[in-house]
Structure formats: C-alpha cells, structure tokens
C-alpha cells in the first residue's frame, strides 16, 4: 500500500531540501511528510479510538470554535517516541522546562513551502501542573500533601500525528523524516523516506478500517456521591481569611479552589465524549497518561506563541455569570455582568497583571490590550474576557514567556507571588493538573533558502473545567477570585457553577450508558446482542459496542402507493421499530443501532434522510405508546412535518428506486472507495422519473408536465439501447423543463427514452491530483492516467465572492513576455483578455504563457522590508488551469504536445472541448476549469492562472442554444443575457480575504472580422480590467508575439509593479516606452507623406526607436523567456539611444540611477531577479532557455 500513498514532498524535493541545508550552521534534521484523505467518514473521536487502540500513551486535542483561522484543526497522536516526566516520585524533581527545551532544541524542521501544514505538526504534547510554580517562584514553595499522586509535568514527544482540517474537510497524516547524517551509507535518505511512507500508509490503513475498537464499558452505577475536600464551610473560611489579607494590604485578590471527588465506572473517554457535547469550549483535550487520564474543556488560553505574527498572546478571564433560559435573559445577565463593579474590578486587576507578565519578557512598546472585557458565552456560564499581547524582547524565548505568565493570574491572584503563597498555606494540598497548563511546544523551523531559524509554535490553555480520572474516581476542581467585597456564600456557589458542566457531564453520561445497558437486556441476552453484532471477542467480551441513535425519519419513497395506511412492526438496523405508510409518505420511529464510528447521517447512506431535532427524542416507551394506535401515529405525522417545516411535495428522496432499506447500511458505509473526479458521478438516485419526453430541438430536450423542475438540476437520460446520457435543466418555468444534453441529442427516441431528475446540481469532483492531467469538456479524464480520487465536490457554477471580502488585486503574475510584463503587467486576481483574430498566433501565445508564467521573484535589492507573507513567490504555489473550447483536433494536439514536451504539464490542468463535441459541453467547460481553479486557490491556497480559449466559441454555443430555445435574439443574434452570462465567468477571478491563493484569468477571444466593436469583445471589455491586443499588422511584419501595446491596457498594473513588487523604475520605464513608441508611429506616418529627408533628427531617432522596439523588444522567440528584470534592462538599453533630456517621462532620480547602469542578462544558470551591480558593462548575454543573442 505504501507505494500507492500520495506523500508530499516527493523524494526528489526532500533530497533538494537536504542538500540545501547541509552547509547551514543550523542545518535542519527533520523534514515533515504528509498525506491527506477526505474526512467524510471520520471524526476526531473515531480517529482517536482507532489510532490509540493499542497505545498506553495518547492524546486528542479539539476545539468547539471551528473557523478558518480559529480552532480549524483537531490533533490526534499515540505511541510517542519519548516521554518526559517530572515529580518527586518520578526520578526528576526540578524545573521541567530546561529539560524540555534541551530535548526540542536537538531538532529543527526544514520549511517545506509546498506544504500547507497546521501550526502543530508534532513535538511535545502534555501538561505542566500548577505545583511546578515552585521552580519558577521559589518563594511559593510549601510542604504540601500529595493526594492525587500524579506527575508534576508530563510531555509526550511525537514524530507522527493525525490532523483533521475541519475547514477543508480533510485528514492529514504528518510524520517527520529524520535526516541521515552526512557520513550515512548511500541510500540512507531513500530508506528513511520509504520508512516514513510506510508509517503514513499504515496510519491511513488504520483510519480506513471500518471496525472501531470502542473503549470497554463495565456495568454503570448511578447517583454516586460527590465529596469536596473542604466543603462549603471550609471554602467560606478560606474566603474570610483571604479578605483579612486584602484588608491588611497583603494582596488585592486571590483565587482559592476546592476539589470534588466522584467515583464513577465510566471509561474516561466516554466522559470526554459527553463533556465535548455538554460543555463545548475553545480547548477540548483528552490525554491518556497510562495510569491516569486528563479530560478537559478549558475556556481560557494561558499563553500562545504565534509564529505568523511573532506575538505572545495571553487571555485573562474573570467575571462569571450563569446562562439565561432565554436569549433575553441571557443578554440581561450579560449586561449585569458588565455592570458589576466587583467583577470589573477583579477583571481589570487581572488584565493589569497580564500586562505586567507579558512586559517581563516582551518589548514594552509592543505590549497592548487587544480586547477588553468582552462577554464570551459558554455552555453553562458567561465570562468577561480580554486579550493582551506583545513581541518578545531579543534574547527571550517562548519558555521565558511561559515562565513569566504561568500560572495565570485568573487562578492565582495579585500580587501573584504573595497570592500563591497564601493559597498554598490555605489549601495545604497539591493542585496537580488543575490551574496548570495543557498544550504543545513545537520544533524550531529553518528556512533552507535563507538559513533563518524561527522558534517553534507554542499553544497552551489553563487546565480549567478539567477532570483527572484515576483508579475509578473523577476529580474536579474549581475556584473563584476573591476581592474586598466578595461574599463567601456567593463565591462558593460560583465554584459550583463552574464545576456544574463537568458534574452534569458525568451524570448524563452514566444515565445514557445505563439506559443502553438496560434496554440491551430487554431486547435479549448479551449473547443475542453479540450474535447480532457479529463481533464476539476473546472470553466473550465484545471488541465493538453498538450505540443507539434515537430518531424519526421521513422518507419520500419511490415505491408505488400501497393504496392505504398500514402499520408494520419490524426492525430498522438492529432495534425495534414501527413503520407507518400513507401512500408514498413514510414515517419511521424507532431505535437505530449503529456503530459509534458512524454519524446518523452517514449511516443512512442513500436509502433514508434522517431528520434530527433537539426537541424530538423517541424512546422505546414513546414508541410503544404511539404504536398502540394507528390514529395516534397518523396524528403525529403533521406535527413532525411542521417541526421540520417540510411538506410532502418538498420531501427529498434518497431511496433506491427498486429496493427498500435492508438494514445493512452500516456495512455499506464501511466502504471508503472514492469516485473519480467526474461531475456526472454526482447524479445519484432519481427523485422523479418520466418515461417519455415532449420533443427534441437541437441540443435541447423539452419536457412538459414536470413536477417541480429546478433550474440547473442534473437529469439522467436512458436511451432504448441502455445508453445513459446526462443533462442539465436550462429552463424551469411552471411545469415545463428545458434540458441541455451534454452528449448531444442524436439518437434520442422521444417515446422510449426515460428521463430521471436527480435533485442535484452539477458538481465537479476536485483533487490536487488533477494537476498534470487532461480532461474532456465534461470533466472526464482522457489521458489514460489513473482515476482521480475526489477530495471534494464543488458546484461548477461556483460561489459568489462576497464583495466585502474581495481583496484588490496586487503582486504581479509573470508571463515571460516583455510586451505584457513590462508594458501591461498583470496583477494576481486580475481578469484581462487577449483580443485576437482568425489567423493570428493566439494559441502559440497561450502555450508560451503556460510554459513561462510564474510568480515574480524579487531581486535581492528589492527584498529588504518586503512582507513575505504578502509577497508569496514560491513556484510550488503556482498552477495553471487551461480551458480550450471548440478547438480542432490539430490545436488540441498542439497544446497537449507542447505542455508535455516542454515540462509545463506537471503544473497544468487541461480541459479540452473539441469542435465536434456537443455544443452544451462547450458551455460547461470554462465553469469546470474555474471550479478547479477555485479549489486550488481557496482550499490549497495556490496562485492560479486560468487561460480560457476561445471565448468566441463559447459565445457561439450560447447563441446556438438560445436559438434552439426560440428566444428573441439580441445584437447580431447573440442572446440578450450574454453580458450577464459572461459576468458569471469573468467575475470568478479575484482574491479573497483570509485566503493566500488567487485566481487570475486570461480569456482569449477571436474578434470576428477583426472588429473590436463586435458584441463579444465589446461586452468582455466592459467586464474585464483591460485587454492585450494581438495585431495583424505586426504579424504581417513578422513580429512575434504581435502584441500592439498602444491599444493594450492593464487597468490594475499600478498595483502589481514598483518598489516591493517588481522594481522601482518599472512604471516610469513603461510610460516612457509607450510615449516613444506612439511618437515613433506618428513619425512613420509622417515619413509616408513627406519622405524621410524632410524629417528632423529627432523624428529620425524616433523611427530608429520604432524599428528597434518592434523588432528587438516586442519581438521575442516563442521559447525565449524574459524575466521582468531582463525586460526592464533591455528597455533601458533601448532608451539609451535618446539623450537624457529627451526622456521626459522618467524622473531625474530614476534616470541618475539607471541611465548609466549597464544590465547584464541572466543565463539559464542564473536565478531570476539576481542583484545586478551598478556600473557593470553592457552585454548581450544569453537568453533564458535559448542562448540566442539579444537583438538589441
């Protein structure tokens, strides 16, 4: 299996990275490798259960706040490479951080720009207990009783983890390759790479295993007692004592706590599963430390080191109130919390303390309060939350920041040291994990291109709302901030409110598992249940347990009406159920037994739609009551419909047309075979079927008397010989549907062809594996390569970009053609067409752009002060999507041969629609290309160049379809809505806030009869942001590429060029070339009238410039790549034929810098953008890739 795993980076890339870093003083010795699969059938909990099944040490990190930037990933790991433990009874009683720092500093990760990895890719995962503060602040050390007997700190070091990307719905397996030493035997790197690849393959095999090894759960004992270590009297006594110290001026605030013990027979992971539901929090974690487990749902960040911004971040939380029963009450309580003088005083003190802690290690000028007293709502309480951040001072590390802030003021007090002394004296027992920190510390990263080393990431939360499970007892601990006006009784109640979520979690989890065990007994003996499950293990113990999902399903069955109402007792899945049929509408109520590996929706697969509502739970008792009377069940039906706002006409059918549910969907869903990336694979089961069609008109099929036709709905047509074709609803008006058939309408028998409406829109299966592949105009692979496994399915019509989130295009896309790059620069996210005409070499220009285009790499002299996060110039982040519409066979062969022979195919995805392909297919081809580009840009964060040729063929297809629909024609027979239709294509270019990628679009169109006023170029010009004009006169002169720069225009050029983008002189040089070329064209016209002898010397100079500009600057070999810096240097060579005083479009400062400078061209061995020294002698040099002499 290892050979089939798509692991990135490749062995070749790894070898390059290793060689690049060999001679660095801080040479990286770890390289991350990654493989991704869809998370469609995987959840963090199910992944953890599979990965940690046979491990003694493991972890799961999650977050309830899942957005693109916050809580986006969940992390899972098991079987750490090494474990670091500290504590009096664990052989190392000292500060745990120096040992952790020493261990992590032995490793450095090589940055791999082509990988988009989460901030955590491995490293040290674990906790630092509160009692470690005695090593950071020795004054706080007191003799304390160790009731819990757990280590003071524990960190597990992982080389392999699993990360779940909730935003892009994928699972990444990440492992580190340990770089062999220089004197390692030959082939050591290859052997290490293969070993890592096998590790990833084994992990993927584990994830795809349909069997889920659930935690063993013994008999449940309910309603066991909670025991506090001090009780209400003890806690109130602590409050009174601390208030005395506040009055005496010893402290301003302190945070005492009480610990509650609760015996439970629940497996600790079952506690976690329920905790994450009843108390969703920003930090959810489960750590299995072999002898004990830590289960937590913390609301509060302790300290985080953000690698992107370089800031140290701290979140003080203080001030608590319960949640309201209604939104109004919730808001009223929040307003009361904001107005509470006591809570505000407590919070302001903690914010001040946090600023002081951050200032101890950060530059005071960078320390700031980013948020102040914002109400943040959790499942059971509301808190006042602030954020303080700063940038570390030189010489300080993340460990210094951790020491400075640990423990948080919210669990200690102010002044912190004195408050901690008093807490230790009052409580007299070690707190253990509570009020400590849980999180991770990553390895440092080295950029092999610059040798720059970046300190590893750190993200830790405060161990609040945290339970320690050990020896059948769950330990909960909670505290509260005590200030001068604190009420002892209210403070005690606040600690109970904070512990309530965890207490309720245990009680509800026990009740649910107890009910399951009782209901299992009613259904039969354990042996019967095990026999049904078919998973009996050793000694009669089940290796898999079956959970119950209570539900009501509504299903629009495709079976014929049964002629009346019937009530049927039976089973759904493995539980009892009752079924009520009334015509085609079916209500089922029951208990569905399903594996915990599957969610309700997944277990239903294609046969049923499960509709869930928080207020609707069907138990065996309620089923019996309902089933006693058909009348009662029928009365329930309208209520259920109203509950979900569904009518029978709107009910979707996911049922199979020939079979009812067979109770075996669990086994069906165990299969994880992914379909190929074919858009028509999404047309699954029909919602409506018609045996005949009304008529055929050109590429269209007309259907009358259709029930609820939907615009853009996919239909499937079955011809009499069994051949299947696909189509899409082009028009839905009343009961009439007009369907465009992708494969054409020839051979369709109107009486015998069956049409099925699927209820789905056209979607394209997309994957990064589409790079380097060739597809036809309907999205099918035609290059005889392997199947493309779809990572996602996207609607080919795309999603409109929110104008508020659309970013202004900036940074330049290089085409390698000077007439474009220097004179009409293209910005990332711009849409700029190429206007050509029949017989002109627009196809050759398109192929050349594919060969040569890329991201501009700054010269060394330009790199200083540039934000690398903005100026992303790595080649691996650039891709091309090429859509060809209506091209002939010879042109399609030209494109494929050119891309393959010249090495550009590996970064190109090619869609080919031939001239003899169905007309309708031509309309969807550009949408398939743009959908692929949107996946690359917004999910893989690549900068994508989309080339679409020929848009004239596309518009002709629109005209043909419009004529078939007998629509009133617009200008020159084209449909009146062509402007709107073209907008749906061109407006999909752009950049979106929060995404690194971009889509730049170059549509190519041939102007009929060279007429720029024709509707196609005319409407295109209104929508796009400029044009590149391919000129017939230049072509007749033998100039290639024949780009006329005078009518050409890039409206967004200014945002893409200049200092920090290309070079400071770019704009001025471009303007001067444009002006001199226009003057030269005027001089040529004058020469034709009066003759050359009548021209002035300046006019003759302009004629010389005109000749050299067209033949030596615009003219460029088809395989000659010029960087933007080559183009600018050649422009200066050309402008030097003029005296300085005639270059009036260039400022004196720029003239002084560049006029005398002689630029040396780069050879193919020289990196684009290499710094060129002033005063260097002019030379013609070699051209990139060609070695031809310069024409200048």
UniProtKB/TrEMBL annotation:
Domain ATP synthase A/B type C-terminal residue range list: 1056-1155
GO process terms (BP): ATP metabolic process; L-tryptophan biosynthetic process; vacuolar acidification
Feature: compositional bias, Basic and acidic residues: 668-677, 1157-1170
Keyword annotations: Amino-acid biosynthesis, Aromatic amino acid biosynthesis, Hydrogen ion transport, Ion transport, Lyase, Transport, Tryptophan biosynthesis
Residues making up the signal peptide according to the UniProt record: none
Compositionally skewed regions (Gly residues) per UniProt: 1183-1192
Domain named ATPase F1/V1/A1 complex alpha/beta subunit nucleotide-binding: residues: 816-1050
UniProt keyword Transport, yes or no: yes
Enzyme class: lyase
EC number: 4.1.3.27
Chorismate-utilising enzyme C-terminal domain span: 234-498
Entry membrane topology: Peripheral membrane protein
One function term, GO molecular function aspect: proton-transporting ATPase activity, rotational mechanism
Domain ATPase F1/V1/A1 complex alpha/beta subunit N-terminal: 696-759
Presence of keyword Amino-acid biosynthesis: yes
Pathway where it operates: Amino-acid biosynthesis; L-tryptophan biosynthesis; L-tryptophan from chorismate: step 1/5
GO cellular component: proton-transporting V-type ATPase, V1 domain; vacuolar membrane
UniProt cross-references to SUPFAM superfamilies, sorted A to Z: ADC synthase, P-loop containing nucleoside triphosphate hydrolases
Span of domain Anthranilate synthase component I N-terminal: 42-172
Subcellular location field: Vacuole membrane
PANTHER family, per the entry: V-TYPE PROTON ATPASE SUBUNIT B (PTHR43389)
UniProt similarity note: Belongs to the ATPase alpha/beta chains family.
Protein's recorded name: V-type proton ATPase subunit B
Origin species: Friedmanniomyces endolithicus
